[in-house]
Design brief:
The protein contains three helices and three strands; from the N terminus they run H-E-E-H-E-H. The protein is an alpha+beta fold. A three-stranded antiparallel sheet has the order 1-2-3, with no helix packed on it. The longest helix is centred in the C-terminal third of the chain and has 15 residues. It starts with 8 loop residues before the first helix and ends in a 15-residue tail after the last helix.
Length: 111
């Protein structure tokens, strides 16, 4: 997996940023997220929603109309850095996921 670089104030100073990913850094599957802002910083919390594994659990979820999303990571991002981070995520997503042709369904069939 290739990491996408983002603009950084330190680069403007002529200092190269060297990313270090420790071997023991946990990797978690996430499929849900929340983002909040307190005026000074953003809080990005990533969650994992595990689908029901059996009929009893599925019935319980249907009855309660809820499914739990368990937080697996929370990040605090300074407001000054958020625009660059958001732009990096958006740009990298646009480059990585091919756009559907107009009039084409997600399965490739035509409408």
């Amino acid at each position: 997996m290739e990491d996408a670089p983002m603009p950084d104030d330190r680069e403007a100073l002529g200092v190269q940023v060297q990313w270090v990913i420790p071997d023991n850094l946990p990797t978690s599957f996430v499929n849900n997220a929340t983002l909040s802002f307190d005026g000074a910083q953003f809080f990005l919390t990533l969650y994992q929603v595990v689908p029901p594994l059996d009929e009893a659990r599925l019935a319980e979820i249907r009855d309660s109309k809820r499914i739990k999303a368990h937080a697996v990571a929370r990040f605090v991002i300074p407001k000054e850095r958020m625009p660059d981070i958001a732009r990096m995520v958006f740009d990298f997503t646009q480059q990585s996921i091919p756009r559907q042709q107009e009039g084409e369904n997600s399965d490739g069939s035509s409408t």
